[in-house]
Amino acid sequence: MSIKYYTHFLLQERPPSGMSEFRGIVEVSRVLPRGDLKEAASVLAKNFECDTQDIKVLQWSRLH
Hints:
By secondary structure, the protein is an alpha+beta fold. The protein is 19% helix and 44% strand.
């Protein structure tokens, strides 16, 4: 069973690209601790194959 979250985040890409902005629904296989943006950044970084510090989560909320 997957858990859906709405996310809005920035991704620091390699130069010359700079920052990219993303919004959308993310499905994960487990419930993440409420308000744990570090864990959310970790999930997103795995998906984008980048370092966690390259992700800045602006919004992360569970959908019901």
